[in-house]
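Review this today:
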Amino acid sequence: MIRFLKATESGCAWFGKAAAWTVPLLVLGTCLTILMVQLRLNVLVEWDARLPLLGEHLSLSNLTELQWHLFAVMTMLGGVYALNDNSHVCVDFLACRFSPRTRAIVTLLGDLLLMLPFTVIMTLYAWDYMMSAFHSGEGSSYGGLSDRWIIKAFLPLGFGLLVVFGVARVLRIAIQLATSSIPSDTPAVTPQRLDE
């Protein structure tokens, strides 16, 4: 069961790893934007068919908005990766003095009382937010990206992944506490020290 729960946590974190590929796209988009500004181009290329998100052309407005949206994708999917990798922001000044069992209890309570309620509520609200954009056909009002629901879909996806990750981690830590099998080097339990 522990192996399955760890695999679930790693599976959720995989999306964050995949989101790292938005960084080269972000760099390319930034370089194209700078090039277009220098060449005083508003539209880089046009095509006949309407593409999802981009519409019928690649313009300066599209690229500018795309940079922000790629950053949002990276942030929403990268959160669960950071949590799994224990590279998230946490309060270590007290926890580093705790025993592995006490750290596990603190992590369990924090996930149950703080992370899970917040992420469940945010997933529900983000879903409604995304569906509202989908039903209204929301797009940019000044020639930027169309189909904003595609980008907004990463909000419920990111928070939903945090919910699944949180449930798996709570169950794993609860089983480890019940069976007295808390490893001292578990990333989700052992905080990283700043001086290492």
The first helix runs from residue 2 to 19. The chain has one domain: 2-178. The chain is about 65% helix and 5% strand. Residues 2-178 form one domain.
